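Note to self: the last two entries modelled the partners one at a time, which told us nothing about the interface. This time every component goes in together.
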Amino acid sequence: MIKKVSCRPHRMTALLAILGTSLGLLAAPLAHADDSESNLKVSGFMSLVAGRTAGASLPADYAGPASIDGHACPCYTADWSNAGVYTDSLSLRPESRAGIQLKYVLTPQFNLVSQIVVRGSDTSPNLQWAYASYAPSKNLEIQLGRKRIPLYFYSDFQDIGMSYPWVGVPPELYGWEATNYNGASVRYRTMLGDTNVAAGLFGGKETVKDALYDRLFYNSKTRVEWNNLIGADLEASQGALTARAVYMQTNVRSINLLEGVNDRAKLRAYGLATNLDLDAWFVLTEVTQLTRDFESGYKITAPAYTLGAGYHYGDWTPFINYASYKEKTSNSQLYSPQSYQRWSLTLRYDLGIRSAIKGQIDRNKDVTRNFGGDVTVMRLSYDRLF
Amino acid sequence: MKKLYSLLVLCGAATFAMPASAEIVVITSTANQATRMFSEQAAQFFFGQSNQFTPIEQGKDSSIRKEFYQKLSNKSVSQVEAMWAKIEFAGKGSAPKSYGSDAAVKKAVAADPSAIGYINKASVDDTVKVLLTLP
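The predicted structure of the combined assembly is written out below.
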């Protein structure tokens, strides 16, 4: 897993003003889906996540770091993009977050959307999104501006704990230097027989001055650029089954002068996900592969998959999941591959329509014994939608 | 404060709601070409899988909403909210507008040829067309 990216808004005071005003608006009982005539729709989300590890100690042949981003190992990296790491003292910082989404409807076809998120692991507010959307018809939507990179199935709504059964999305698949991009996307939806189909194309670039992902590896700033980013996805849903396939490629440039890092690589990512939503049972699967082809002549290939099943029992949803990540490299002198496997058991309780509590236990195995050690992780989360 | 007042009115209206197991019907505008629909077909519009029809919702805490999703596809309101949260916070659409009564839903549905909503069967009149009856 490579660097992380954090975006610092250019006009901090203006954004803090927006955040402040929006929080003020949210203080009043606000139903965002109502029949009011307002052109400005404010919605938001919040997740409070507390967790800690309970690992014995590092194995005798452990070849990894003694600490990751300042957290003593054995430790667990739950969120690679934002350097969310748990260690053996309880913390709310690694995964807690809150966000506000503002949607200004200019006309039924044209609206402006922005989303600002604050995280426990990164104290300054981040402008995740700021884009204009134009929908000339029900079938077509064009978006221009800053948005989340829709790489894998849960990438788009990765911060919305209410919309998935685990405390966090499987880190075996999710987490890179760049989370958002500046560019454009097009999405076309239609029906083929009884199947709802959507095809999308997206492209752009992103620059991150101090990648949080790289803070997992280095104690100094790494600048990351993702250029010539282009991707396409296809989603089909019919009844209980939804499937999505995606391809993305980009040129990655990483610079960390203090560490002597200055490399370029071509990144390619493939993903296939399925959601089977039966009466009470549901099954979620996703298979991905990320490859980095470095100009200096070596390659890292990282296939990963997650497989989980859950059951809706009234307001309770137990969910069991297995995920695996296994890197391969063409040159193990230059790079030590990582591999992990993790079982998790989650129990979710829906408090109301817009809030839920989850408890999760993970058993993470650091197969290559070089990044964190074997750990048991215990987490409790409270998710809320506004 | 206006919204708090509306919420109080909704709660008041809910106390005069129909008996628990009344039939619920899925309706559309009389201007719409569709004549009937299966539950699975109707579900895709209320879950945001297809936007060919614009879904119209009942009150967030209303008993009809809870019953409707139970009868339609055995889902809880929380599950449906989670589906819309996915869509809305991914920038792929907006959760449906909700209205506080069958009368308000009928009015909204009649006004939009591509709208689809649900009301108690007893509230049906000639301003709307019934596509599906859920027992």
